What does this fold into?
Amino acid sequence: MNGIDCASTLNATNAQALKNASIEAVGRYICGNYGITAAEAKAILDAGLKMWLIFELNPTYSGYFYYAKGFSDAHEAVSEAESLGVPEGVGIYFTVDYDAQSGDMDEIIAYFEGVKAGLKGKYLVGAYGSYSVMEALAASNFAPDLYFQTYAWSAGKQFSGNHIYQYQNDTEVAGISVDLDQVSENGGLWANEEEEEKLDHAVMYFTVNDFSIAKVVADKLGGCAMFCRNASNTNIHADAKSAKHLVVIGGADVTDHSNVTNCCGLDAPATAILAAQYAQTL
It folds into this structure.
């Protein structure tokens, strides 16, 4: 999915602007001068964006990295995450934000050993850095759960185990200075639980006569859930009504849904024609 990470504080307006610009996930810091607040987190999640969390103080030189520092950083990250209401099991990405050399890797690995101990299993261990950092950590006895590689310092190489890949720095989206990222669904993201529970698509048909064409439409929408009104125009299943996109095939039009496609003819043959025309657009 399309993602950005940024140091800018987001609010309801610019979070929605990012969403409108086809951004699906946002990386934000949970500490330091650019640390996120609970109000900002709510604005991001309420806009329907997913979020990954970045912990960074000053990891820009080799001397920053050792076991005790990893442990203390993790302890601070847990405290910050808990104060924000971050659910357990979400990832926190700890950064190696410089061109780390081969001689630095032992201490970087020790740092992530400390991070793992300090998180105590509450949050997933994420690592940010160059290709070489990803490779060294993955081969260690303290491999992170999640990998966030930057193209910087990577000489064009891309780590095969990436969950997030930062492919461009210092650009602008929706008027905000950002870095651009490709983000995996399994990247330890924080999402609005209510939004996550909603179906992306639902197809609701009226009677058995509408079933066949409803299944064609559902298959075109990725094999989404189907619901039957049981010959009652008022009997709409709650999961169907709460779906992000509802397709109605037969019966009366649904008018109280924010994103509905009505394919409702005067009879079953007319409904089938409308639904078939819609299916051809998918």
